[in-house]
Amino acid sequence: APAATTPGTDRAAARIDVPRLCARIEGGYRISRQEARALVEADLADLLAGANRLRAFFRGDVVEFCSIVNAKSGRCEQDCGFCAQSAHHETTAPKYDFVGAETIVSAYHDAANRGAHRFGIIMAGGKTREELQAEVRRVVTAHQHDRKTTWCASLGMLERDEIAALKEAGVTRVHHNLETSRRHFPNVITTHTFDDRCRTVRAAKAAGMSVCSGGIVGMGEDWEDRIDLAFTLRELEVDSVPVNFLNAIEGTRLEEANARFPLTPEACLRVVALFRFIYPEPEIRTAGGREKHLGEWQALMFYAGADASLIGNYLTTYGRPPEEDVALVRDLGLRLKFDDELRPSGARTPPRSALPAHPGPTPRARS
């Protein structure tokens, strides 16, 4: 697929009435692909104002944080072009088997202390072995009531009965990204199919499990691919949509992607906003690569429609201190889940207020 083009070339499409479209969406309307294409070309300030309006309407002023632990790293047999843990790549990513219950539980409590509402156990591999699934079930069952922070799992391609067993053990959500559009998928992954990914999502929904599924932008896809991904996630009715921005890792097949297909802060914000317009109801969760590609623009991810974020470190790369994200949410006048537990004794509760209807002047691009 061709690289993503820069918005702004089709001025006829840019004349879409964003406030009117927002009002229709608030009334239950689902936008068309043609309208989504027009939004790609819309004025950035208008687009963010609309996405912020939809976030406030559908999600309120509460931001949810999640955190993860890389419980089994490296030596993955899949050839995902972006992944440092693939055995097909030569990278410096750590390689180790199951870290054990003590490490997972310690990471869980640390995440809870730092503001995470959800905590995910992540394991490398196309499918996690049954004995390791059993370990996950045992850990969650033993500690599911320790804190308010809930347990999630990302264990590769799973069947309905396996997901049902995780749910019975206390896992509240399964994570399984589609990564990109059906059309672009073979350019990124060849050892399994787009349908394999969708099958796991459908199995989780059939088992009554909440599903977190999204993708990565910046892998050479174009705006049509990004629209297709959002529409597929809407059709699958996933509950949370993580939006990752490729942080290209040396040694992977896509190690030069950031240079070949650069992501500007504006493009990242447009992607988040576009997902909110196409699928307005669920959590839109900014995740990997936001520090690298948004930088000082990170506050605008909430204006762009995000209402959730992954905090702390990622699978093989470092994030920023969670305290910075907690401070950012409070400075914006938004509310954080569990805020009362995190606030120091005697500290004043920030005023309850949504973000203003318009994000104000667009900050200058980073040099």
Describe the structure.
The protein is 39% helix and 13% strand. It is built from 15 helices and 10 strands. It has helices at 18-26, 33-40, 44-59, 101-113, 130-143, 160-169, 185-188, 194-206, 223-236, 257-260, 265-278, 290-294, 300-303, 322-331, 339-342, and strands at 62-72, 118-123, 150-154, 171-175, 210-212, 215-217, 240-245, 283-286, 308-310, 335-336. α9 (223-236) links the parallel β6 (215-217) and β7 (240-245). α2 (33-40) packs across α9 and α5 packs parallel to α6 (160-169). The two termini are 28 Å apart. Residues 8-13 and 342-367 have low confidence and may be disordered.
Q: What key attributes describe this structure?
A:
single chain, alpha/beta, 367 residues, 10-stranded parallel beta sheet, 39% helix, 15 helices
Low-confidence stretches: 8-13, 342-367
Mean pLDDT: 88
Question: What is the number of helical segments per DSSP (H or I, 4+ residues)?
Answer: 15
The helix content, as a percent range, equals 25-40%
What distance lies between the first and last C-alpha atoms, to the nearest angstrom? 28 Å
Total strands: 10
Oligomer: single chain
Question: Summarize this, please?
Answer:
With 367 residues, this protein is of the alpha/beta class. 39% of the residues lie in helices and 13% in strands.
Topology (elements, then pairings):
Blueprint: H1 18-26, H2 33-40, H3 44-59, E1 62-72, H4 101-113, E2 118-123, H5 130-143, E3 150-154, H6 160-169, E4 171-175, H7 185-188, H8 194-206, E5 210-212, E6 215-217, H9 223-236, E7 240-245, H10 257-260, H11 265-278, E8 283-286, H12 290-294, H13 300-303, E9 308-310, H14 322-331, E10 335-336, H15 339-342
Parallel strand pairs: 1-2, 1-9, 1-10, 2-3, 3-4, 4-5, 6-7, 7-8, 8-9
Helix pairs in contact: 1-3, 2-9, 3-11, 5-6, 9-11
